[in-house]
Amino acid sequence: MPAKPGGADRRQDLTDSDGHLGSYGEFTGPQVGTGSMRIYRNGVALTSAGGNTAVDGSTEASYRIERSYDAQNVFPSGGRISSVWETEPAKADAYGSPTLLPLANLVWSARSLDLSGRLTAGRSTVLDVQATSTALDPADRRFNGGPAAYTLDGGKTWRSAKAQAVDARGHFRFTVPGVGLKTGTWLGVRFTTQDRAGNSVSQTLLRAALVR
User: Fold this and answer.
1) What are the pLDDT digits (tens) for 9-67?
2) Distance between CA 107 and CA 135 in Å, rounded?
3) Three-point CA angle 175, 155, 81, nearest 5°
4) What is the band of 190 on the pLDDT scale with cuts at 50, 70, 90?
5) 3-state SS string for 50-89
6) In whole angstroms, what is the distance from residue 174 CA to residue 149 CA?
7) Where does the chain have alpha helices with state H?
8) What is the pTM of this model?
9) How many C-beta atoms lie closer than 10 Å to residue 51's C-beta?
10) Helix (H) or strand (E) holding 148
């Protein structure tokens, strides 16, 4: 039976806070947003047909998943995201049951936002990132930190930020200084981390919050 990427991974762009699966949708026609997903098995790109990708899970393999979505101006805030997942070796069980890939994932939150999800010009903001893991061994579902960065020009230039561990369960925090947060600009953020089994996630939100 094929290994099945998805299901247990809580990708922020496809699930709500309770883990309910969703899909991209627009109340416009024709559709404006664009998205793509590529899956690699042991470094070899897999082909897809009709939106489905066949994955042979009978033998152990590592996977890389690349996903991006740009909602253009339909969903300006948070509507431009790209993620890359890499997994530890995995395969279907002895009974041939579909296998959920062991993925790491990120859930973002920010302080100092107004009711419309906007930042205030000139005011520093604190961002929290919660990393989660579905590593095959529960003992490996811990994270050792990783690099954080932010951009104020749509990703042309990035500035490093020091992410500090809040606890031992994947909660990290970093601060974006108020200098550079000017009215009308977008704050973009990026964070990369991996659990103790080597399952990694790197996520970029180019339009995380608008500065008012």
Assistant:
1) 333 444 444 444 445 455 555 666 788 889 999 999 987 655 556 566 778 899 999 99
2) 17
3) 85
4) very high
5) CCEECCECCCCECEEEEEEEECCCCCCCCCEEEEEEECCC
6) 9
7) none
8) 0.80
9) 6
10) strand 148-151
